[in-house]
Amino acid sequence: MSNSIHIYGFHSVEAQLKSSPESIIKVFIQSGRNDNRITKITALLIDKKINFSKSEKNKLDHLAKGEAHQGIAAEVILPPLPDQKELIDFIKKLSNNPLVLMLDSIQDPRNLGACLR
Question: Which residue spans within 1-117 are E strands per DSSP?
């Protein structure tokens, strides 16, 4: 599916489950993981009727492109991006003097935090 991405790690998957579960296509859980965090997420997935499967660690490594995945990943649908006019209209509605920060290719969350401060 070309309009989807993979997210990984407990916090990312839990946040997606709580904020927009309808965007989750499938969740991949590492085989052999049966700790409390996995049990909690599995219960949420069953409750929300979201497709999930047990997967080998190497599949999760591939989905996470070598990043730390904590034994969980999800395929999610990307939301549609606003066009330039929609974005400008939205910014104008925020306040008289909105601060717009445009960033590209942020890879380290600490760098994003520094920009926001």
Answer: 4-8, 24-30, 52-55, 72-77
